[in-house]
Write a structure and sequence with these properties.
The structure is a homotetramer.
Chain A: H1 8-12, H2 15-32, H3 39-46, H4 50-56, H5 60-83, H6 89-106, H7 108-117, H8 123-151, H9 160-179, H10 181-191, H11 200-216
Helix pairs in contact in A: 2-3, 2-5, 2-7, 5-6, 5-7, 5-8, 6-9, 6-11, 7-9, 8-9, 9-10
Chain B binds a DNA duplex through helix 4.
DNA sequence: GATGAATGAGGTTTCATTCAT
DNA sequence: GATGAATGAAACCTCATTCAT
């Protein structure tokens, strides 16, 4: 489903090499940003020649996109299990929040790439990437909420798609708050505490309250 | 309070010129991104020489920051009135949502700059900017929620700062959904409808439900 | 005799202003070098507008040359008295050395300009400046040595002009050693001591020996 | 011992190319001066792209310093043989003078760079370069004079380091007189004759007299 | 498959000088 | 006499991409 942006030669490379290249590139893109990241530097740090790099990826953009897709898969797998379970919505929500926190800390660089993509201007590219990244997750959200609607576990006057959207807005901001300098500072400004020093339980419990009420209350 | 990033010469320029420069620059930054924006092009489009541009701003970065600050002031003013009123929290929330929608459409380019800043890597700069942008708004939120806490208008077990944070997360995503290509696509993926074609009332009413419940429900 | 490189308007300015401009400019040229010195900065530091600066001097070069000429006059006056006295050559030499040391410390910036001129590439300009600077001094040297030749105070087989040249070579190096970073370091490398910390008497006495022998010994 | 200012890639280039680049650059620096020299022009004249130039040298400054070091090595080699011989001091002196004249004519551009360095303002850089250039030569001088002191070939009351300094002052001025416009003019003003047309023997014999006396005479 | 030398367009920034007021 | 806003050419340096080996 996701369009591949690497050449066949990359597929033929050893897993070790593939991972090394992707990790090295992700690190560079995450720390410098797309424009300032340097493909020649990435190649050197990954221990391959620039020529070989271009045997693997046609352009800088393709390398970047491949990194993004790779990160997206990791996130998707982490959520897959949670969302496909038979748990009630609020149980899922709690798992979702905890997983979001843990995953964001562990895969900080991929989240940073995600934020980077977010300000990309190439409309065609953006459309493609957004679909690759968001479709899968949004479907899981909407599916779970719709199921809860049918079982009467949530208020009946909610629009599942918009509520899924609002929910993800908060989780998205949380992810960025754990990983991107600007959002980290924003988090501290709002809460008065540095994310890294904040008690994770406080976030979980408060956010759970916020969501639980939002989804279940009905006048 | 916000540190100025323009030179005295810029202050001495006519209001007309100041606005033209800021608007031209904002347009360029918003459409190309910081790195790809071209100062020479901005100067030409603003009808001044590049030399004069550098009499007004020491660096490309300073010009960018000044644009961001300018956009932030506009947003801040728009919210000032709402947040400082005596309205109850939910009335404020409704006004807030509507204003966010309207303002985002009208000042799309400034919101785009905001998103751009968000992926900046210079930690010092980011810290400064984040404070300039977020402090004022966050204080308004927290103040309003805290007031509502005292008057008993909202549930007593909420943490005003975290709830303010969650609230702004959604409004932030909404702003970006109106203005940035990636978020536009994301919005459509979630809701099935293009933001520009969506009935604004649907957003307002659903988001209001979401917020109202989140803030007022208590087991 | 020295061609003036300032405009009439400069002459009409008050002495205070003239001195301030020349000193400010000399300082800038001495510390940054001709190319990197900034006329706009000089004007600002001298408390006049750049427009007025150009009413006083047609070009940056003219301002520079005027500074050089000014410094040269100061040096020339310091030597005038010594060289025109009736003292014997070696007495003159001693006074010359001492004066060179003192003057160099006091007028460091002018000496630095002198060194700067020395690497100028405009052949016409160089010719003019060299004549303005060197003619007067060289004549004094040659005259003094020639006199000493006639009175039999020095060896009869010396060429007064070449010996004057050799003598000035050393004094020139001494001047630069007191004022220019490179020559300061060179001095320390040769002598093992920083010029500023060296006992001036050591220099005087050794150089006097050097010169005395050179001029008076004959097989 | 001298710190290298070129990148590894430069070392890997062919000797022919290395020489061509250094000579082309030296020519440009010598004729225009450091500031006005144009790297793009140097690259073009050396027949390589500007990009490759920057693969060889990180900055304009590094290219310049490398040229200076290269010139210094040539000079150092020329003096090595003379100074390390068993000749008596005055024999060495004669060879030194002749070699200085010949070398200066043949390597005029390198001497010009030397003069250029002399007015550099970066104190750190100047210190480094001065040591790279002067240490080797000064040691040779001081060693030779000290030896002569022990064998009783020179006056016993001289300070070998200061006398070495005075000696080099004159040779330095001679080098510049052969190569730099300003010093050429100065030479002519002092001697009445253009350096290029002057009988080299006159210089050698007079300077030898000057030095011989200075070093051997004792009251 | 793998290398890395080579390219060159393009962008930020500086500053001497002009000129209308 | 005095101002300072305005100009714009020019230079250093970066880096994605190619291609011969």
């Amino acid at each position: 489903m996701t369009e591949k942006r690497y050449k066949d030669a990359f597929e033929r490379a050893s897993d070790e090499r593939k991972n090394l290249i992707l990790e090295t590139a992700t690190k560079e893109f995450a720390s410098k940003g797309y424009e300032k990241a340097n493909i020649n530097v990435i190649a050197k740090n990954a221990g391959i020649s620039i020529g070989l790099m271009y045997k693997y990826f046609s352009t800088k953009e393709d390398l970047f996109i491949t990194c993004v897709q790779h990160g997206m898969n990791i996130l998707d797998n982490a959520l897959e299990e949670i969302m496909m379970s038979d748990d009630k919505l609020l149980i899922k929500a709690e798992k979702l929040i905890r997983t979001t926190c843990i995953h964001s800390k562990k895969n900080a660089n991929y989240i940073r790439l995600y934020n980077e993509i977010t300000s990309e201007r190439n409309p065609m590219l953006v459309k493609t990437i957004a679909n690759e990244i968001e479709s899968s997750i949004s479907k899981k959200y909407v599916y779970s909420i719709s199921s809860a609607l049918k079982t009467g576990d949530v208020r009946q006057d909610l629009d599942p798609r918009l509520f899924a959207f609002f929910l993800d807005d908060i989780l998205l901001a949380l992810r960025f708050s754990y990983t991107c300098d600007y959002y980290k500072e924003r988090f501290e400004i709002y809460t008065g505490v540095n994310v890294e020093e904040m008690d994770e339980e406080a976030i979980v419990s408060q956010l759970l309250k916020f969501i639980e009420s939002a989804f279940t209350f009905e006048k």
